[in-house]
Amino acid sequence: MVRGKSGGSPPAYARIAAALRDQIERGDLGPKALLPTERELAELSGVSRMTARHAMMILESEGLVVRNSRGTVVAAPRLTMRAGSFYEELERQSVRTDAALLWAEPQDATPRICDELDLPEGSRVNALQRLRHANGEAVAVETSYYPAELTPGLLEVLPAKSLWAVMRVTYGIVPVHTTASLSVVALDEYTAKKLSARTGAPGLAVSTRSYTDSGRCFEFCRNVYRADRVAFQFDSVISSVAEPHGQEGAAR
């Protein structure tokens, strides 16, 4: 057993949670598998019911288990996401997706939106918000902005699936590059209700900027995901250029 600096063992609830986590991640306990009740888990582990409850709460906070009318069951695996098109990313994984339009309107771009889209002050944008579903489950509230000059009439041709397909076909805009930033947030009341989650539950706020081959930013999005339903994967190209002399051993 790996011990911490203090030399002590992990608390009982952490050991129980770790053992169940391992079974879930190995596939020994598959999606919808029914877990022991808190009383049963306490008896099996030789701990108090409070300790067993603490272990279950850890797994629930990690999105590995959910509570329903049957009891506590193993949750479906998280969706693996990358920055870019929600529809196209999940389509590659054979995940059924759709989008429910919450609102759409032309707007005067705020200073923040002008900065994100590299637009001059006073520019107009086409703005919309959609509720994104994966296999019938609401997983993200997506708010998107597009320069009006690049996308005239966009709000009249909104699809139920991929906006990027509309960009390519209708406007000749070919996405080639996306940058993203991610932060952990607490779901506000509005977003939590749309995502069928509790207010204050953890969410992932992902802001993306997408560019054409000419370097023009054509889309800025701020998406909020259920943190218990998605996991993001980021790729990074590591430079092969040697570090300057004297920098060996610097933090990487």
Can you tell me about this structure?
This protein is of the alpha+beta class. About 25% of the residues lie in helices and about 30% in strands. The chain has 7 helices and 10 strands. It has a 6-stranded antiparallel sheet. A two-stranded antiparallel sheet has the order 1-2. Helix 1 packs across helix 3 (about 50-60) and helix 2 crosses helix 3.
Provide a quick synopsis of the model:
The protein is of the alpha+beta class.
Helices, by number, come to 7
Major β-sheet, in short? 6 strands, antiparallel
Report the strand count.
Answer: 10
Tell me the Rg in angstroms.
Answer: 23 Å
Mean pLDDT: 83
The coarse overall form would be elongated
**Proportion of beta-strand residues:** 25-35%
Unreliable segments (pLDDT under 50, ≥5 consecutive)? 1-6, 248-252
- Distance linking N and C termini: 28 Å
Largest sheet: spatial strand order: 4-5-6-9-8-7
Q: Which secondary-structure class do the elements indicate?
A: alpha+beta
H/E element string?
Answer: HHHEEEHEHEEHEHEEE
**Percentage of helical residues?**
25-40%
Features:
two-stranded antiparallel ribbon; elongated; alpha+beta; 252 residues; disordered N terminus; 6-stranded antiparallel beta sheet; 7 helices; 26% helix
Question: Which helices and strands occur, and which strands form pairs?
Answer:
Elements: H1 12-26, H2 38-45, H3 49-61, E1 65-68, E2 71-74, E3 79-81, H4 86-92, E4 97-108, H5 111-117, E5 124-134, E6 137-147, H6 163-171, E7 177-186, H7 189-194, E8 202-211, E9 217-226, E10 230-232
Parallel strand pairs: 3-10
Antiparallel strand pairs: 1-2, 4-5, 5-6, 6-9, 7-8, 8-9
Helix pairs in contact: 1-3, 2-3
